[in-house]
Amino acid sequence: MRTDKVIHAFRDSLPVMTGYAVLGLGFGVLMASKGYDVFLVLSESILIYSGTMQFVLADMLSGNVTLSACALTALMVSARHVFYGVSMVERYRDIHGLKKFYVIFALTDETYSLVCESNDADYCFLVSIFNHSYWITGTVAGSLIGQVLKFDSRGIDFSLTALFVSICVEQWLNADTHIPALTGLTASVLCLLIFGPDNFLIPAMIAVTCLLFAFRGKIENENV
């Protein structure tokens, strides 16, 4: 693999590195504060590699949630990756062997934003590797820091929420239609009131999915 391709992929992935460093450190410290060791953090970051789901799982593990509930939550939280994957079928066609399985596994939001416009199989693979390594490094470093330095970690788990709030605000300002955002907000608030803070997540995701399918035609017309 040519050196210039490696350098190109690395440079493009630097913004992801800064974001993953902050969120990864926060996740690692959070896990340490809940009594989980660095080996669990490392295993999660290698095998799960989902910032959203890992933050959710931190609370689910400490709350003795059933395996089936964890699996269903993971499916709902990561369902958007199905749509990413469909759009990348042609772009990943030239990747073969274990590399293909890896780039499919490693297709996160941030990686997708970099590779969605590239037809270079090597570039897609390198970006996936770099971004995954940033997340692993950040979470493990956070876990080690959390093990050594004992401090009040309250509020760290809000870092991911803050990230999504900022993304939502940016999307709201730039979107042609606000139907998806209003749908998500309304469904989530109603489910929170009906099911309570401990049980509203899955019903809210199901409701949002169904409503977006119902309003699909109107959303597409407003985006034209």
What does this structure look like?
- The chain is mainly alpha-helical and 224 residues long.
- The chain has 2 domains: 3-153, no CATH class; 175-224, no CATH class.
- It is 76% helix and 0% strand.
- The protein is built from 12 helices and no strands.
- It has helices at 3-33, 38-47, 51-62, 67-77, 80-87, 98-105, 109-115, 121-148, 158-174, 179-195, 201-214, 216-223.
- Helix 1 runs parallel beside helix 8, helix 2 runs antiparallel to helix 8 and helix 4 runs parallel beside helix 11.
- It is globular.
CA-based shape: globular
Helical residues, percent: over 70%
Number of helices: 12
Low-confidence stretches: none
- Which structural category fits the helices and strands? mainly alpha
**Separation, N- and C-terminal Cα atoms:** 41 Å
Radius of gyration, CA atoms, in whole angstroms = 19 Å
In percent, how much strand structure appears in the residues?
A: under 5%
Note the main attributes of this structure:
single chain; 224 residues; 2 domains; globular
In short:
The protein is mostly helical and 224 residues long.
Helix and strand arrangement:
Elements (H helix, E strand, L loop, with lengths): L2 H31 L4 H10 L3 H12 L4 H11 L2 H8 L10 H8 L3 H7 L5 H28 L9 H17 L4 H17 L5 H14 L1 H8 L1
Helix pairs in contact: 1-3, 1-8, 2-8, 3-4, 4-11, 6-8, 7-8, 10-11
